[in-house]
Design goal:
There is one protein chain. The chain has about 160 residues and is mostly beta strands. It is built from 1 helix and 9 strands; from the N terminus they run H-E-E-E-E-E-E-E-E-E. It has a single domain, classed as Jelly Rolls (Sandwich). About 5% of the residues lie in helices and about 60% in strands. Strands 1, 2, 3, 4, 5, 6, 7, 8 and 9 form a 9-stranded antiparallel β-sheet that branches.
Length: about 160
């Protein structure tokens, strides 16, 4: 019985190297362009309450049976709540599903730190659109740079 239980929590096996789907730079305007200004090779937001910043949307035809990873570097100043990465995947037949990086949320004042949020895709689960967001609570200042989407195939 314990073998069966252990198999449920077993990490998936990687079938190949991780590859970058897309890296975003300051030349790419974020969707929340009124709330984000270009600063320090990325974008900065100053806000007084909880807010979700829509960064980018991109069609992602093809990948399944793997891990989509939303990775970015964040820096914060006087952040009164948490900040984390959020990824939404839209599937034509099923609608939208999300992965929120609560487990890697940051608070307070931090120098640049790399965060990532994974989304596990099973065989034949192919999103047609991926949305990348930055969620922030409470208010403060936050910077984000080196925003990228990666794909790792699984066995």
């Amino acid at each position: 019985m314990f073998h069966w239980l252990r198999s449920i929590f077993k990490r998936p096996e990687v079938a190949g190297p991780q590859r970058r789907i897309r890296l975003f730079s300051t030349a790419d305007p974020p969707l929340s362009r009124d709330a984000l200004v270009v600063d320090q090779e990325g974008w900065r937001a100053e806000f007084s309450g909880s807010q979700t910043f829509a960064l980018f949307e991109l069609p992602v035809p093809g990948p399944d049976n793997g891990i989509l990873t939303f990775r970015a570097k964040l820096k914060t100043e006087d952040l009164r709540g948490r900040a984390y990465l959020e990824m939404w995947c839209r599937f034509q037949a099923w609608g939208e599903f999300f992965s929120k990086g609560y487990h890697h949320a940051i608070r307070g004042t931090n120098d640049w730190i790399s965060l990532e949020t994974p989304f596990y895709l099973k065989k034949d689960q192919r999103p047609d659109l991926v949305k990348l967001n930055l969620a922030a609570e409470g208010g403060g200042k936050i910077w984000i740079k080196e925003v990228e989407l990666l794909y790792t195939p699984l066995k």
